[in-house]
Amino acid sequence: MTDQPITYASAGVDVHAGDRAVELMKESVRRASRPEVLGGLGGFAGMFDASALKGMRHPVLASSTDGVGTKVAIAQAMDVHDTIGQDLVGMVVDDIVVSGAEPLFMTDYIACGKVVPERIAAIVSGIARGCELAGVALVGGETAEHPGLLDPDEYDVAGAATGVVERDEVLGPHRVQEGDVVLALASSGLHSNGYSLVRRVFAAAGWGWDRHVEELGRTLGEECLEPTRIYSRPLLELARADLGLHALSHVTGGGLAANLARVLPAGVLATVERCWTPPAIFGLVQEQGRVELGDLEQTLNMGVGFVAVLAPEGVERAVQMLAGHGIEAWAVGAVTGPDAARHDAPVVQGAKGVDGGAVQMVGSYPTS
């Protein structure tokens, strides 16, 4: 038995620090809203007026949840916390838009060893900024202090979002046809996948996050913390523009081939030409870690954050529309029958439980 009374604060949880964090994040959260949001910050549940759905013919809800993975370790090492939230939003809402759904609202969860109000507010400011970019309302969240489970400077983030789409406008394998074009959309860098490999490679090379890298034009840490590009608004514009958009794929864990295969119907093959030069960070990971190409492509996005599958007649306009949003896009291949597979390259088929189509990566990346 202890001689002194034990309080929640002495056990490591500071309720007052949590309240201070909420005060600091209020302005950021206020900017990440939509007219349908009811109530304000601090309720037990976020509320969203769904009456607009009554005007839809057959609304289908889409939901997604995700985190940022070990990229948070770099944010913690560099003491830079206002970008990781945009990564979280991108990872969640851009999974929803794959189905053609418009993301509506999002909630977040931050677990930390110690609530430092300014740090929590910085994380939430990044989440709110990401929600603004995506047109999504941040309707609620939770910050949990876990002393003894996490070190004082450690934290992790997760989030979930909900969207809606008309049932007859859902994108996916059922729409894909032979002759469709595969369009690549440029990433902003590593995004939020493969950081266990990236961290291991540069630790083995003895590179610190503050190392200035000439090929990158900035420090290694700045490059690795570049926020994930958020594609939802531009892609929804494409989906509504009658371009013959049939399927979308978010290039995350597993790489381009595996994620593209998930949105193709069984019995077709998408051939992807390595016709683009990946940004310098991907070559540095490969070189410093002596990572084999197959392993690299299964782990990192190689400069392509999203893939669209659409009718040939819509490609030129799609490229122009995406350029208007600052997103470079280019054709990388086409959908054919399985007999078109080449014998000099592996075929990827079936990923994450989906028995879909097949994808074959061919050729060599051009050097800059």
UniProtKB/TrEMBL annotation:
Catalyses:
2-formamido-N(1)-(5-O-phospho-beta-D-ribosyl)acetamidine + ATP = 5-amino-1-(5-phospho-beta-D-ribosyl)imidazole + ADP + phosphate + H(+)
Q: Where is the PurM-like C-terminal domain?
A: 177-339
| GO terms under biological process | 'de novo' IMP biosynthetic process; adenine biosynthetic process
Q: Which GO terms describe its molecular function?
A: ATP binding; phosphoribosylamine-glycine ligase activity; phosphoribosylformylglycinamidine cyclo-ligase activity
Taxonomically, the superkingdom here is: Bacteria
Provide this UniProt record's keywords sorted from A to Z.
ATP-binding, Cytoplasm, Ligase, Nucleotide-binding, Purine biosynthesis
Pathway it belongs to?
A: Purine metabolism; IMP biosynthesis via de novo pathway; 5-amino-1-(5-phospho-D-ribosyl)imidazole from N(2)-formyl-N(1)-(5-phospho-D-ribosyl)glycinamide: step 2/2
- Classify the main location: cytoplasm
Instruction: Please give the GO cellular component terms listed in this UniProt entry.
Output: cytosol
Cross-referenced Gene3D superfamilies: PurM-like C-terminal domain, PurM-like, N-terminal domain
Residues forming the PurM-like N-terminal domain are: 59-165
Give its E.C. classification number. 6.3.3.1
The compartments listed are: Cytoplasm
The top EC class, named as a word, is: ligase
Q: Identify the HAMAP family for this entry.
A: AIRS
Say which family it is in: Belongs to the AIR synthase family.
Protein name, entry field = Phosphoribosylformylglycinamidine cyclo-ligase
